[in-house]
Specification:
Layout: H1 7-18, H2 20-57, E1 61-66, H3 86-93, E2 98-102, E3 105-113, E4 116-125, H4 127-136, E5 141-144, E6 154-157, H5 159-165, E7 175-178, E8 181-189, E9 205-209, H6 210-214, E10 225-229, H7 235-250, E11 257-261, H8 262-305, H9 307-315, H10 320-359, H11 370-396, H12 400-404
Parallel strand pairs: 4-9, 6-8
Antiparallel strand pairs: 1-10, 1-11, 2-10, 3-4, 3-7, 5-8, 6-9, 7-8
């Protein structure tokens, strides 16, 4: 019988015989592979969630924001930036290829329910703009109704503000105070999962009409714009036209506002997450290195304890190459077993973190990646074989006479 066919039984027998030392060796591989799988899965989950949200916006979308603010995430609106004048917005609306321009008003504010006071964000739109925002997937009503033109002292409250911020839930029909003025709650939004670069945190926001906004704040203009073109083929052309408008307003090579397509933002987010992912995986690989050293130690002890077995193999005609192959395959099998348990543990942890993140309002779409599983298993097996090479070569070069005596 080919000794290579006995490798699994050899390896299992060796693991059992080595006892605690072998299980600690496996643990090192399991931890390393689990860490790599978990970090890769969570990074991919963030990227998947961001991509899904940008797909909701559509490939015909342009984002306009103060320089340096795109692809950043925050619960509070940007302050101390130049606002966009009505004339500038109208110039953008006047571009023939532009279908719609969304220009919400945003401001930090104080929100009072009963005796409790918290800091929040007010976003003001027209009913027409609100309908467009609902199409983006950022805002979806859980109960109540949408804002209408006649609503001045009416508000829609974000999910977290309504159900998690105050001691008692804020319900439709109740009154809340914003900047000391009373508003009636006419709706509550559904919980919106937020991903990096995925838009405003609508969970902690109060939505009102621009008429209502005028009752609270004076002379406030928009800071951000969302522009949708007639078709995705017009995006680059509209981007250039908008940039020319800003150059005419703020001067050539202006650094006040930037314009980016949804695909550009998605690419920026992907690159940023990719760098973080590689750094973290590099750190996690240290655990796998420790596991590889453990495999080497286990294989060295295995060679020392199985010299008689090696002598028998050579006495019945096993060549140095065959002995080397048997011990290399055994080391690879140990790495593979650790890899299997590591992949299971890694995905288990990734899905757990994903579930907790989604429950806390962060979009994290963890999915099983076959290529990651295969790559992790191959990586673990290769690490095992590399770690076992020196002990395997040592076994292959043993003198059969000395080996049969059980002496190195």
């Amino acid at each position: 019988m080919n000794p290579l066919s006995e490798v699994p039984s050899f390896a299992v027998g060796n693991l059992t015989h080595q006892g605690l030392r072998s299980y600690l060796t496996l643990l090192g591989v399991i931890i390393g592979i689990a860490a790599i799988v978990t970090l890769f899965s969570l990074g991919s989950g963030l990227n998947n969630a961001a991509q899904e949200q940008f797909e909701q916006l559509g490939s015909n979308s342009l984002f306009i924001a103060p320089m340096g603010q795109l692809a950043s995430q925050g619960d509070s609106p940007v302050t101390n930036f130049k606002t966009l004048s009505e004339s500038t917005i109208n110039q953008i609306r006047g571009i023939s290829e532009v279908e719609v321009v969304l220009a919400p008003l945003m401001a930090p504010t104080t929100i009072k329910v009963g005796r409790e006071v918290v800091t929040g964000t007010v976003i003001a739109t027209t009913p027409e703009e609100a309908a467009e925002f609902e199409d983006t997937g950022f805002v979806e009503l859980e109960e109540g109704r949408d804002l209408e033109n006649r609503d001045v002292f009416s508000v829609i409250v974000g999910h977290n503000l309504a159900q998690e911020t105050f001691e008692s839930d804020v319900r439709v029909g109740e009154k809340i105070k914003i900047e000391g003025k009373s508003f009636k709650v006419i709706g509550v939004t559904k919980a919106s999962a937020q991903s990096f670069g995925g838009g405003p945190n609508t969970n902690n926001t109060v939505f009102i009409t621009k008429k209502g906004f005028d009752q609270l704040f004076e002379d406030t203009d928009p800071v951000f714009l969302l522009v949708k073109t007639e078709s995705k083929d017009d995006v680059d052309l509209v981007k250039r036209k908008v940039e020319r408008i800003f150059e005419s307003v703020y001067g050539r090579d202006q650094k006040v506002y930037e314009v980016a397509t949804s695909q550009q933002l998605l690419d920026q987010i992907g690159q940023f997450l990719g760098i973080i992912q590689l750094v973290l995986v590099g750190i996690a690989s240290i655990s796998l290195l420790v596991g590889g050293i453990g495999i080497m130690n286990t294989m060295i002890m295995s060679v020392l304890e199985r010299t008689s077995e090696i002598g028998v193999m050579k006495a019945v005609g096993a060549t140095n190459t065959l002995v080397l192959s048997v011990f290399l395959a055994e080391a690879g099998f140990i790495g593979l077993v650790g890899g299997v348990f590591g992949v299971i543990a890694g995905y288990g942890l990734a899905f757990l973190v994903g579930a907790i993140s989604v429950a806390s309002g962060l979009a994290l779409k963890v999915e099983v990646d076959i290529s990651l599983i295969i790559g992790s298993l191959l990586f673990a097996m290769i690490v095992g074989m590399i770690s076992g090479y020196i002990p395997a070569r040592r076994a292959a070069k043993m003198d059969p006479v000395i080996a049969l005596r059980g002496i190195e």
